[in-house]
Specification:
Largest sheet: 6 strands, mixed
Bound molecules: beta-D-glucopyranose
Shape: globular
Mean pLDDT: 96
CATH class of one domain: Alpha Beta
CATH topology of one domain: Rossmann fold
Low-confidence stretches: 43-47
Structural class: alpha/beta
Number of helices: 22
Strand content: 15-25%
Helix content: 25-40%
């Protein structure tokens, strides 16, 4: 046994003994209390604590609280638990710290476009430093649901459509949040969510069932969750959707057979918000029945259903659940508290001095700004309009040009938007003394006021009461007087995220009309597209020369956009979602299976295609331009055969063939040409992010290992099969060079 392992074992032994002792003194009600997680609402009145939750805590009926902000308020409640409840068990405080805390990083979908694992991990690290400085020790992140359907609003919260990239990002984030040691006061416990398949929601409608073969689950949707287990994530969250017709929250195959028995997960599982009581709507029982089913399936903690705390006692008496199952869930939650060091010091995350010093610091903001600039994807720059010169007059128009609250993006619970810049402010700063920036809003988000209201809730309202024609004319007049137009358009932040599915994914009507009117002025136009998902933009691609997708870049988004707009940094983001030509192509993803009648042309009768749209997307997975160009040498392979214990090297030399420095993401894809089951036409297996000065070359070498060739077969056995493989290397999934080798 190594020293580290021995230390671990003795820590475990101490923990088991401590928790064993504690549990021997707990009543059934106190055990059930540990399984109960709730939000507080506003419970602090002056210095007096009021409300139902306080008496619940005193009675030991609450195990944790979430989405409460500020050390003072958290301390007050922790004191109730520690000083007033019979056993003084500390509460665990959770929060949706999804992409940063007060320093907000880009939305997770955007972060994935950077393909920058170190920066993503650092973003999680910084989020942990800030959140723990403010009393939070548990985050409901990372969200790792693979998604191939941009109608689903929560595509914004994940890493896109690819499971390999998703797994890498999950690992990076869990490591960033948890660090090496959970008792460290600057680390917090991660919660991998939403287990499982939440991103597979039928028709892209939130909370809908996800129904797919187990082969697809294991090969294409599960890898990021498994990566979370391997990275040591302390907790998992069950998803709202059904899997095989059973809600995930009560799905024993998922939560026990796969998660615990197959993957050896040893943390705890929390339900999603009211996920237990919602199973009554799924039609699998009343609150008592669904609570018992959830516990028996492996859901340890009940978020906001009050099903465990109120019904499990009766279920125990009726033999519907066992004491063993209750004890096990309780033990797992106490273990999490122990691992976080809460039994040593319940106030360890409640140092007000840290809150003042460590939140929204210059260093954190600089990091967020850098990462945001890496996430933008340059879709088109035909006229080399970008980067813009800091010269003359710039017309800034569009509904996203002068809004502060919409910059951070969905799920920014701890954001303090008053301190963040609008794009207008940042552009004025970036051009001061050189160019003039003039602003006209030009249009609202869309003509339909109701749709706009539903897409800009939670303090993000932005509707202008003026008449549409009046607003448009004002912007057109402004454009006529300026040299170039920057159109800040797209979705406001609540148009993606939870409960924000869309059936039509184009640029909205009022914004499209404004673009048409602006085009008629003949002035060059740069479209900045704000989005939490893939946008359908054929018309824009056909009519505009310049499109930069900026997603939602977080608290420093506005400055980061200027960094790229004016060329301090060349864009380097690459799409992690396929951009469809229209909604009818959805679900669309690059790593699909072949059909018996494939068709790469459009149209041939009796082949797999549409009458009215080609099969290929508008922009493929992995795509994104720079301000420079990269040339690729022919790829080489170190051999044409590989043994099951060997490996091969695939190499390519990439040269920056343009005039400015730039970063390229070199991508390795593989295809298993003959297998016991049909295999995808290509799968991302590796990538390298390299920065090159003009004229500089670098050779990138990928090692192809047997591990990269493995997949789950029809019996869900994970292995590689001998035969021929194709290697593809390139700057996006479509634009690749190919070679073959044989696995012996
Ligand atoms: C979401 C989760 C989130 C939870 C707690 C739910 O509605 O699905 O992702 O962590 O709320 O706020």
């Amino acid at each position: 046994m190594t020293l580290a392992l021995a230390a671990h074992a003795s820590n475990d032994a101490q923990m088991n003994q401590f928790i064993g002792n504690l549990m021997s003194r707990m009543t059934l009600q106190e055990k059930l209390g540990q399984l109960n997680l709730q939000v507080t609402g506003e419970i602090v009145t002056g210095t007096t604590l009021s409300g139902e939750v306080v008496s619940q805590i005193e009675q030991g009926r609450v195990g944790g609280l979430f989405n409460l902000k500020g050390t003072e308020r958290i301390r007050q409640l922790q004191e109730v638990a520690v000083k007033k409840s019979r056993l003084g068990i500390p509460l665990i405080f959770g929060m949706d710290v999804i992409h940063g805390y007060e320093t907000v990083f880009p939305i997770p979908l955007a972060m994935s476009m950077s393909w920058d694992m170190e920066a993503i991990s650092r973003s999680a690290r910084i989020a942990a430093v800030e959140a723990t400085a403010d009393g939070i020790c548990w985050t409901f992140s990372p969200m790792v649901d693979v998604c191939r359907d941009p109608r689903w609003g929560r595509m914004s919260e994940g890493a896109g459509e690819d499971s390999h990239l998703g797994a890498e990002i999950c690992r990076a984030m869990v490591e960033g949040y948890q660090g090496q040691d959970l008792t460290d006061r600057t680390t917090m416990m991660a919660c991998v969510k939403h287990f499982a398949l939440y991103g597979g929601a039928e028709a892209g409608r939130d909370y809908n069932p996800a129904d797919m073969s187990h082969v697809r689950m294991f090969n294409e949707f599960f890898p990021p969750y498994l990566a979370g287990v391997e990275a040591g994530a302390g907790s998992f969250m069950a998803s709202f959707n059904t899997v095989d017709y059973i809600p995930a929250t009560a799905n024993r195959w998922l939560l026990t057979d796969v998660l615990r028995d197959r993957w050896n997960f040893d943390g705890f599982v929390v339900s999603d918000y009211s996920g237990i009581i919602e199973m009554t709507n799924h039609g699998i029982g009343d609150l008592q029945q669904v609570s018992a089913r959830a516990l028996n399936a492996g859901t340890d903690m009940d978020m906001m259903s009050y099903g465990y705390v109120n019904t499990l006692e009766q279920s125990l008496a009726e033999g519907k659940v066992s004491m063993k199952a209750i004890d096990q869930a309780c033990r797992r939650i106490l273990e999490a508290k122990y691992k976080l060091g809460l039994f040593d010091d319940p106030y360890r995350y409640l140092d007000p001095k840290r809150a003042k010093k460590e939140i929204y610091t210059d260093a954190h903001r600089a990091e967020a700004r850098r990462l945001a600039a890496e996430t933008f994807v340059l879709l088109k720059n035909d006229a080399h309009l970008l980067p813009l010169a800091r010269l003359g007059k710039i017309a800034l128009v569009g509904p996203m040009a002068n809004t502060r609250t919409n910059m951070p993006g969905t799920w920014s619970v701890a954001a303090t938007p008053d301190r963040y810049s609008t794009l207008l402010e940042a552009m004025e700063r970036a051009t001061a003394g050189n160019a003039e920036v003039h602003y006209a809003k030009g249009c609202n988000v869309c003509y339909d006021a109701e749709l706009e209201k539903n897409s800009t809730m939670f303090g993000h309202e932005m509707r202008d009461p003026r008449d549409a024609a009046e607003m448009r004319d004002e912007a057109v007049r402004l454009a006529q007087q300026c040299d170039v137009v920057v159109a800040a358009m797209g979705e406001p932040s609540e148009m993606s995220g939870e409960g924000s599915s869309r059936s039509q994914l184009g640029i909205l009507d009022a914004q499209r009309d404004l673009l048409e009117a602006l085009l008629k002025t003949g002035k060059p136009i740069v479209l900045l597209n704000f989005a939490g998902r893939a946008t359908v933009m054929n018309w824009e691609v056909e009519h505009l020369s310049t499109i930069l997708n900026v997603w939602f870049g977080g608290s420093e988004a506005a400055d980061a956009i200027c960094d790229v707009l004016f060329g301090n940094t060349a864009p380097s983001g690459k799409l992690t979602v396929t951009m469809p030509r229209n909604e009818g192509q959805i679900p669309i993803h690059y790593n699909h299976l072949n059909t018996g009648r494939p068709n790469s042309k459009w149209f041939t009768k009796y082949t797999s295609n549409y009458l009215d749209v080609p099969n290929d997307p508008l922009f493929p997975f992995g795509y994104g331009l720079s301000y420079t160009t990269f040339s690729y040498s022919p790829i080489t392979l170190s051999g044409t055969t590989m043994s099951r214990s060997g490996n091969l090297q695939a190499s390519v030399t990439v040269t920056n063939s343009g005039a400015v420095a730039g970063t390229e993401v070199v991508q390795l894809y593989l295809r298993d040409l003959v297998g016991s089951i049909s295999r995808p036409v290509q799968e991302l297996k590796d990538f390298a992010r390299i920065t090159l000065q003009p004229g500089e070359s670098r050779t990138v070498t990928f090692t192809i290992t047997p591990e990269k060739l493995k997949f789950y077969n029809a019996d869900l056995v994970y292995d590689c099969e001998p035969g021929e493989f194709e290697v593809m290397v390139g700057g996006d999934s479509r634009n690749v060079q190919r070679l073959k080798f044989t696995l012996e």
